[in-house]
Amino acid sequence: MSEQETPAAFGARAREWITRNLPPADDAGGAGGLEADDATELRLVAEARQLQKLIFDAGFAGIRYPVEFGGQGLARAHQLAWREAAAGYRLPVEFNVTHGILGPTLLDFGTQEQKARHLPRMLAGEELWVQFLSEPAAGSDLAGLLTKADRDGDRFIVNGSKIWSTGAHFSDYAMVLVRTDPDAPKHAGLSMLYLPIATPGVTVTPIKLVTGGSHFCQEFFDDVALPAASLIGEQNDGWRVATGLLFHERNMVAGNSLNDHGAAEGGESEAGPGGELIELARAAGRARDPYTRQLVGEALVLEALANPAISRVNALLKAGRMPPAGAAIVKLLNAVSDYRIREIALEIGGTRAVMSSADDPAGGHAQRWLGARIRTLAGGSNEMQRNAISERILGLPREPSPDSGVPFSQLLAARRRT
Amino acid sequence: MDVELSDEQRFLQQTMRKFLEHEAPVATVRERAGRGEPPFDRGYWQRAAGLGVASLLIPERLGGVDAGQPVLDLVIVAEEMGRQIAPGPLLPTSAVADALVRAGTPEQQDRYLPGLADGSLVAAWAVAEEPDVWEPAAAATAADRGDADWVLTGRKTAVEAADVADQFLVTAATAAGTGQFLVPRDAAGLSVRPLPQYDLGRRFADVELDAVHVPASAAVGEPGDIDACLEHQYVLALTVQAAETAGLLERIFTATVEYAATRYAFGRPLASYQALKHRIADHKMWLEAALGLSTALAHALADSDPGAARLASATKAHVGEQSVAIISDCAQLFGGISMTWEHDLHAYLRRATVNKVLYGSPAQHRERLCALAGL
Lengths: 418, 375
What we know:
The complex is a heterodimer.
Chain A: H1 7-21, H2 38-57, H3 76-85, H4 96-109, H5 112-123, E1 129-132, E2 148-152, E3 155-166, E4 173-179, E5 190-196, E6 202-206, E7 216-227, E8 231-232, H6 238-253, H7 268-271, H8 273-283, H9 290-318, H10 327-349, H11 351-355, H12 365-375, H13 382-393, H14 408-417
Parallel strand pairs in A: 1-4
Antiparallel strand pairs in A: 2-3, 3-7, 4-5, 5-8, 6-7
Helix pairs in contact in A: 1-3, 4-5, 4-6, 8-9, 8-10, 9-10, 10-12, 10-13
Chain B: H1 7-23, H2 26-34, H3 42-50, H4 70-84, H5 90-103, H6 106-118, E1 123-126, E2 142-145, E3 149-160, E4 167-174, E5 177-184, E6 190-194, E7 204-215, H7 227-262, E8 264-265, E9 268-269, H8 274-302, H9 308-334, H10 345-357, H11 362-372
Parallel strand pairs in B: 1-4
Antiparallel strand pairs in B: 2-3, 3-7, 4-5, 6-7, 8-9
Helix pairs in contact in B: 1-4, 4-7, 4-8, 5-6, 5-7, 7-8, 7-9, 7-10, 8-9, 9-10, 9-11
């Protein structure tokens, strides 16, 4: 393979390989992601590991990753050519978080040894990574986290708990944001560590969601001993690493990160919720009802505006005319639109939407509506996206923050007094 | 319009902006409306045409400019006119030029297009009928074939620039299907009844056709055989309108955010309150969607994308709904000052409110989306 290969030539070569080696996208693939049941999710992950290995061996993995770490050293245009060539085929999208968030963070902040050890394995489908950020008592206010790591010679001893980590129960490694200096102001006393999830003292508990699946987990750390080399970036500079990680997360949601296999999980917009609602309106006997038709029309509008809006925000980001926080617009739009479309389905389905089994055409909609609430929270709540849009895109002033500059230990003491 | 403009497009944009800021600032538009004067005079429109705004769709041999990307250039002009709430019959003259270019005879093109291009001829598109019938092929106005002429009878409504138009392009039903006919202002039996002026920069009128005789050569295209052409004009009208509305929405929203960031209340900037900030964030999101839709629609039309009709209706429904909702909330954020005649906000709100219903309301376009999707 020549380094001079054009995106078109790369795409043609990719297409040729894909048609012979990748399975077609399964229609039931839409059942992945947030709405999957446990068995389906585990099956899809096992399948994804094999597919990613296949892609790696064929020399198509990590299109924008450096060659020295197992990637192809190519550009975004090649990545887009890959996505286009793979349309209609099953891709290991389960590696998106690993390749789109954790890998890029390791590239930015990791040591040469950390990168050389892990990046090739991520690209080869051998290591699934996940981030441990939120805590039971620290969600939107991430820097208020309590999980601590005490330095003990050449080790860190970690105690605490993390929550809402995506797929920790089937992942291999995690980056974990911990407090290493409780006497510094809250953002200044944090460090980013990484660990094999199978490390003794780590307990992973899948969380059963309202939809019945276990997409997210809670982790407990009981005197978990990690070598000093687990540190990513400098000690007490973890907030900078976390900010970089969250930047890559928003970028991934906006389709701009280093993950090759499409923007996000689920592939909802391709499936065409508008078409589903039309079927639902017919099945519910409301195809001629003017109010129902207005609702269907509203969903068709939301469906139509997603890609134009995302393209515009991406173009603004690329042109440097919108700060990186611009991805918050895409995140909020996806969440708000998805929620409204599910709400419309519930309304059109009527009684049958809440009282019939999943094999009824109107049956699954109440369940999916429950699931849509997860999207308005996961990866940063709608409210946090609104903060990001107003403060970091529009430059509006922040709310007064009484915790700024105060040592975290004092904040904790004050919290206990009230 | 696109985020990245070519050098030529940026030049067009800057030229338009300067021209409009000089010739038709919002204050001037407001003052003329306040004095009951017409929103613009012919000289203004001819000077605008001198910059090329009326000739983008017209071939060079007929007085046009052979623009590389006519529709994309047109939406740049429309956005700028929206930003300034500028007067001028950009949309109707574009729709009429489009009809003549796509369906007109060489004689019609030679006769009318040069005048449209240089602004000396103003043409209105008489398409709408009561009650809120905007789809061109749904016209009920009758055109009956005589021996050597057509006889038009019916009433058109909400005809933009009817007060100054020299020619009317009238959609009408014939025995063969819908046709379009050029009717001169002085035709016997044609009367124009001005409607109360709500938009400060535009006037509309009812146009009554009482057995108006026009020669056979007045038909633009073969009646019954121009449905694709009518649909193209309709989507073009929606494209120009979307760009204009998105442009005006962006301008007034930006002004509102600047104001909210500097005004203090209870010791803090107004815009530091989450109760307001979160509303502003939602507006920003829907605004970017509106601008993205407007751009996507222009490209779909320019590329003759078969999905353009659906995108046009989705764009109209979204932009129409959100523009009025957001500007109304901008008034709330500005507070009492936006209630005054001297403040610009009402000029924006008025135009958005008119655009919302012109060429079909959001509700009508949601219905059209269902029909286009086979429901």
